[in-house]
Design brief:
By secondary structure, the protein is mostly helical. It is globular. It is about 75% helix and about 0% strand. The chain has a 3-stranded mixed sheet with strand order 1-2-3. The longest helix has about 35 residues.
């Protein structure tokens, strides 16, 4: 039974967090979460960097690497679906530290694989840990950052993924000639193990999770004191924004996503992110080939394609900045509409090199900005009691879109589709993604109007 709220000393943890400046506490949390996402990027790109050496050392055909390269992606999806719900039940910190340790240990073990089957199996298991790590990092960061800067900070954290891939390329170029391809996997394994050891003393548990799950007030107060040392919180009761606490406390996180209140929004989030990654991974995997087929030199194809990701870095920060000032859903939907318009125009300007280069940069700004903003958007949509699960399941569904995009590009190229036709086609899923967010926004607004039970969840004493 919950303890009655002491109205003389009651602290709404969201209002408390929103009232703080971005402090050393936030900086430490940001660095830890940034490193987690960066290690995800490093591991994601690792197999691509070591593939040529693997083919040479093991004398295997290149086409046999397909299962190895995709095994981690499958593991990530399953890990997100199965492991992340535990974070909404036992806590973000425990699952996050365990998942980082798990994928670090498995990455080290992968380096000692002696067959393609063993390598594929180990990459799949590594993916399970990765699938649980990133959703937890996104959720924990979003739950501690003041609302006025949340979009910008969480999106900036997501830039760690690109940084990790870039670092992987640099280190691979140095490590493989000297120590062999296994050294890349060992590096990508030892680093998470070290980070997992740092997470235990440095990473805070989510106070919103603690309040929503009735953890002792004293523990909540101690964490908030780290955030604001000057605050006097002894003896205070703590409340959070969760609505319908009786229902959410007894319902599994997965069932909450599919409940009447969230079902339509959940479906629309999944549809939007699926379409987003379909477009993103088709472009990421096939842009150089499309440019080469359109008459660009090999160097020109690589350089122009890289500008897509340069624009992406700008778009991630711009989208986050705009989300903090306007409706987050409308901002992301606008970025999708902009993507649709730009890819349609791009397909009709392939003959103009300078204009095409500019359009590719803007495409990266719009599409990457939308893609990176979906996770914080999902974290904002779901309640504390199912937030990690909501983010994780959306990311898992998006992985299916990534596979569709990669294979879809191959199918379209096999059908002899040209640059203009493919880019024009990409406007369709971009518009579908925008439409899905509009429907989601209307559903959320309707739920807000019809909600009658807004009793706060309260932290109790042990």
């Amino acid at each position: 039974m919950r303890e009655p709220i002491d109205r003389a000393c009651t602290v709404d943890v969201q209002e408390f967090i929103d009232g703080q400046r971005f402090s050393v506490f936030h900086c430490v949390l940001f660095v830890l979460c940034f490193l987690i996402v960066a290690l995800d990027g490093f591991d994601t790109g690792a197999m691509g960097f070591i593939a040529p050496s693997l083919v040479q050392d093991w004398k295997v055909p290149r086409e046999s690497l397909g299962p190895v390269l995709s095994a981690a992606l499958v593991g990530v999806g399953i890990g997100a679906l199965l492991v992340s719900p535990f974070a909404d039940k036992i806590g973000r910190k425990a699952v996050l530290a365990a998942s980082v340790f798990f994928f670090g240990a498995l990455s080290c073990a992968t380096a000692f694989s002696n067959s393609m089957d063993a390598l594929t199996a180990m990459r799949f298991l590594t993916g399970l840990g990765l699938g649980a790590a990133v959703p937890n990092a996104v959720t924990l960061m979003s739950e501690y950052v003041p609302a006025r800067i949340r979009g910008f900070v969480v999106n900036a954290m997501f830039m760690g993924f690109a940084a990790g891939i870039a670092l992987g390329g640099v280190l691979s170029a140095w490590l493989i000639p000297v120590f062999g391809w296994k050294s890349v996997l060992l590096t990508g394994g030892v680093a998470p193990l070290v980070l997992a050891a740092m997470l235990i003393p440095l990473l805070p548990e989510s106070v919103k999770f603690m309040v929503a799950n009735g953890r002792p007030r004293e523990r909540v107060a101690r964490i908030l004191q780290r955030l604001a040392p000057q605050a006097r919180l002894n003896g205070c009761a703590f409340i959070c924004e969760a609505k319908n606490p009786v229902d959410t406390a007894r319902t599994s996180p997965v069932l909450q996503l599919l409940s009447k209140r969230y079902l339509l929004g959940t479906m629309m989030l999944w549809l939007s992110y699926f379409m987003c990654l379909t477009v993103f991974y088709l472009l990421t995997n096939w842009l150089p080939t499309l440019f080469k087929a359109s008459g660009f030199t090999l160097h020109g194809s690589a350089m122009t394609s890289s500008l897509f990701h340069v624009g992406g870095c700008v778009g991630i920060l711009l989208a986050g900045w705009l989300m903090d000032r306007f409706s987050a859903i409308r901002v992301v939907a606008f970025f999708y509409v902009l993507t649709a318009a730009i890819v349609f125009v791009t397909g009709r300007n392939v003959a103009h090199d300078a204009w095409l280069t500019a359009l590719i940069v803007v495409t990266g700004v719009a599409l990457s900005g939308a893609a990176a903003s979906m996770a914080p958007l999902a974290a904002e949509f779901y309640p504390t009691t199912s937030r990690v699960t909501g983010v994780a399941w959306m990311l898992a569904i998006g992985r299916v879109g990534a596979v569709v995009g990669a294979f879809g590009g191959a199918i379209l190229m096999g059908l002899s589709w040209q640059f203009a036709s493919i880019f024009s086609l990409l406007a369709v899923p971009s518009l579908v993604a925008a439409f899905a967010l509009v429907v989601m926004a209307r559903s959320a607004a309707h739920n807000e109007r019809t909600s009658t039970d807004t009793a706060p969840v309260v932290a109790t004493r042990s």
